[in-house]
Design brief:
The complex is a heterodimer of chains A (349) and B (107). With 349 residues, chain A is an alpha/beta fold. Chain A contains eight helices and 20 strands. In chain A, strands 1, 2, 3, 6, 7, 8, 9 and 20 form an eight-stranded mixed sheet that branches. Chain B is an alpha/beta fold and 107 residues long. Chain B has one domain: Glutaredoxin (3-Layer(aba) Sandwich), CATH 3.40.30. The chains are: A alpha/beta (349), B alpha/beta (107). Chain B: One of its GO terms (molecular function) is protein-disulfide reductase activity.
Chain lengths: 349, 107
């Protein structure tokens, strides 16, 4: 067991020589940074592990964010994330630009191994790794990714000036991508497997009103054509089963996201939907001291605002958890009143 | 040492006629993943300066070269050796993954 010593401000030294922190937050989207703002303001000096190349999360790949309250004129996704980070750092959050490669979550000391070989330790973890773009599941995806096949319109749309392209999907992100891509492309098909959209009304209407966008209903992509670059797709009619080819210069996929649980899927309980299971409306996972927030626990709403709210919940839950640990520790140090303290703890639990 | 910028004017001298393998980082100001991966490339450039050169090419300012090398996604990293593209890597990746992709030229 590591020897844990209190120096009065929640900084401990473990037997490996690393500083035992109160909280490590994994993830740098709205959930992670909001958790950091709350934890930092509670003087828990959080360490936030932001990843090496995906700092800021999904909003870094969006343009205008129009539904985040407090920004009546809208704000660019990367600007919003930059401001969240500034706010978190203002209160003492330490941000590390590296990737988590391994986690040890059992026991009172949680260990986080980083890509650079370093190990960080904390009494509580907030896991807010978000979600990853869902793939179509076709073998040619790997080869053609980055060669006309893309998951990021704002990153790659620029290269499709005066081209004919398609967006697969029927949700808000598919509508946003299709609308955005009309800035560059001459023609944008939206390929959707149903005859109605999941997207919000305002996003639908914007796409319907756009002359460059043409909807193709009830189709799924069964094959992507091209060896060195995308040249088209095979579409299967989901009603009749009929196959047909569509010539394209590019294909953008926006069919949803999957929670990023690969580091914890064998350590934390998951829901049937694949998100991390939490206790009721809290952020408490199946392992004490491990809290989860944002898209990684949310199969339904997945908004910047709901993720931020979820990050708040996690920070408050973690704060309570740490306070209870401190109370228990304080009780141990007072043998005279040990019995009373144990009784209080039993009540508190 | 940060990777230096090349342009359409300097590309031939700096890249095509370079004795060493050259990694060209095709990037743009508006590309978030490009900015995120930039310090990683700088670090690789510094650590392997004797083996390879790493240069940056802004696709907004040099659209001709972006088109010539059929860039459809950025960041894109193309390794040039003897004036030819010998390897293409697309997308921002963590340092170990990028080093693995470039292993043939830096180890």
């Amino acid at each position: 067991m590591p020897s844990v010593e209190s120096n009065g401000c929640h900084t401990y030294v473990t037997n490996q020589g690393a500083v035992l922190r109160d909280i490590i937050i994994i993830g740098s989207g709205p959930a992670g940074f909001t958790a950091a703002i709350y934890a930092a303001r509670a003087e828990l000096k959080p360490l936030l592990i932001a990843s090496s190349v995906e700092i800021g999360g999904e909003l870094m790949n969006t343009t205008e964010v129009e539904n985040f309250p407090g920004f009546p004129e809208g704000i660019m996704g990367p600007d919003l994330m930059g401001q969240m980070q500034q706010q978190a750092e203002r209160f003492g959050t330490e941000v590390v630009y590296d990737d988590v490669v391994e986690l040890e979550l059992d026991g009172p000391v949680k260990r986080v191994k980083l890509g650079n070989g370093g190990v960080e330790e904390a009494r509580a973890i907030i896991y807010a790794t978000g979600s990853a773009y869902r793939k179509l599941g076709l073998p040619e995806e790997e080869v053609l990714s980055g060669h006309g096949l893309s998951w990021c319109a704002t990153c790659d749309g620029f290269f499709f000036r005066q081209k004919t392209i398609a967006v697969v999907g029927g949700g808000d992100s598919a509508m946003e991508e299709a609308t955005f891509l009309t800035r560059f492309a001459d023609k944008v098909y939206v390929l959707h497997r149903r005859d109605e959209l999941k997207a919000s009304k305002i996003m639908q209407q914007r796409a319907f009103d756009n002359e460059k966008i043409e909807f193709v209903w009830n189709v799924e992509v069964t094959q992507i054509h091209g060896t060195e670059a995308v040249t088209g797709v095979t579409l299967r009619d989901t009603v009749t089963g009929e196959l047909r080819a569509l010539d394209l210069d590019g294909l953008f996929v926006a069919i949803g996201n999957d929670p990023r649980t690969h580091l914890v899927h064998d350590k934390l309980d998951l829901t049937p939907e694949g998100t991390i299971a939490v206790d009721g409306r809290s952020s408490r996972t199946s392992v004490p001291g491990v809290f989860a927030a944002g898209d990684v626990i949310d199969p339904h709403y997945r908004q910047a605002v709901t993720a931020a709210g979820s990050g708040t919940v996690a920070a408050l839950d973690a704060e309570h958890y740490l306070a209870a640990l401190d109370d228990a520790g304080a009780a141990d140090e007072e043998p005279a009143s040990a019995e009373a303290s144990v009784a209080e703890l039993a009540v508190a639990n | 040492m940060s990777a230096r910028a090349v342009t359409e004017a300097t590309f031939e001298q700096e890249v095509l006629k370079n004795d060493k393998p050259v990694v060209v980082d095709f990037w743009a100001e508006w590309c978030g993943p490009c900015r995120a991966v930039s310090p990683i490339l700088d670090a690789i450039a510094t650590e392997h300066a004797e083996k390879i050169d790493i240069v940056k090419l802004n696709v907004d300012e040099n659209p001709g070269l972006a088109m010539k090398y059929q860039i459809t996604a950025i960041p894109a990293f193309k390794v040039f050796q003897g004036g030819e593209v010998v390897k293409t890597v697309v997308g921002a990746k963590p340092k170990p993954a990028l080093e693995a992709d470039l292993a043939a030229y830096i180890s």
